[in-house]
Amino acid sequence: MHWRAIILITGLFWGLGAVEPIRVGLDGWTTLNPLLMSRDTDGEAVDLVFDRLVTMDAEGTFIPGLLQGWTVFKGGREVVLELRPGMTWHDGTPIEAEDLVFTWKALRLPQVRAIADTAGGVASLDSLVAEGPLRVRVRLARPRGTLLSDLYNFIPVPRRHYQVGANPLSSPVNFQPVGSGPYRVVGRSTPTRVRLELWAGYRGAHPGTWPAFEFVDSSNDKNLVQALLDHRYHYALVGALPHYLVRKGAEGGGRLQAYSVPQAAFGAFFLNCDPKLSLLGDLALRQALAELVPWQEMARARRFFPARLASAFWPPENWAHDDTPRPLPQVGRAEAILDAAGWRMGRDGIRHDGQGRPLVLVAYEQASSVSRSSSRLLAEQAAKVGMRIEVRRLSFEALTEKSANHDGDIWSYGWTTSLDPDVDAPLFTKEGYRTKANVSGYLNPEVDRLFEEGRYTLDRVARRKIYLKLSEIIWRDKPVIPLNYILVRVLADSKLRGVGFNVLGQGYGFWPGKRGWRLEE
User: What 3-state DSSP class applies to 14?
Assistant: First the structure.
């Protein structure tokens, strides 16, 4: 009984605000619902509120989460999942096999896949059947090389609370989640602020350390260094300049820590490949655009703010990375491609094709304080060869909506790849086109076939050859032009301990992750 008294007393102190929460500054999020996550930052709080079926350690090895274990039968065509006994949801009801089956079915719903198709691997498991309260049998038409990655991306939700309606984004549960993890939401959460506190009922394998967290949208904070010094945040993603100044000792007064970690992510131009909607349906124009990437400007910035020019779709942190040397973009090659494709310079300084259509494109990017963004630099390069690019700025939500609806020619934003390259398949395949995950409207039967083959190839060496071939085709066809592989830049209060990152450069999605964070004097 003594431990119950300690929990009660500690809870009273939390209620009085005696325990300072760890405050995390992020660039916003869209949901706390695991079914609907569409931004990287969505996973930051979700990873504390929910347990995955399996998680991984910092080295990338898969370890049990909600599952006690799993057994493979019939050469990989059947897998039995065993849940840990005694686990409950935050509402006190038991976590059961039927919750896993419900979650799998929910992830397959069209209205869910239209919002968040990155969990496509989970949704494409062939069959899940509950065999008692704690056992689920997964049946597969063919053994899958993606199995553990699929289970990693499987975050079950309680079937009693997560029934999916016609408009999933309007559900109250999106910001008042009923989870399974060591922390639960307290008070009213919003897309700009979430408070979490340790849940005394947690019986899982990966408990939390610090009593409370608070997540805050810091995207509009103009001086994050001062905000950290004022203890409004203990941890915040920051831009290159403040990170550089703290790292060099020019700011922060020694009270801040600067972290810089390569992430399996990149900034990119996504190109509209649909010939009915965009001139960029012409491969020659996409290839010409790739020769206009402003790499020299990026290289100059790298002298002060290290970054890595992208040369393949999957970054070096991903086992599918293609390290083939690529020639640097050249404006002269862009001119030659346009000439060969029949785009002639007009008196207005803009090229036109044989039908008289002007070479004018619309690029959308996220609104920010950066005046010379990658899109604007691209537009400057394009003007040199007779191509006009009109750059328009939108909120991130409006930008992603434009791209999902294939509205525009170029969309500029970042992409984070997953543990297994199969998770990125919807970005390029016919199935992804149906669910709007294939924002480029890119269709290539050979790409569809290779992703299908890669999913069911068990040998790691053979699988890598498949994705190297895919990388080669993607590089040739240019539905996406990766620019810079992203470096995560973080500033943290010197009192914050336990900060770490996984093999993908993420501060979440692994054990201990944020669950091991603590504040020390």
Answer: helix
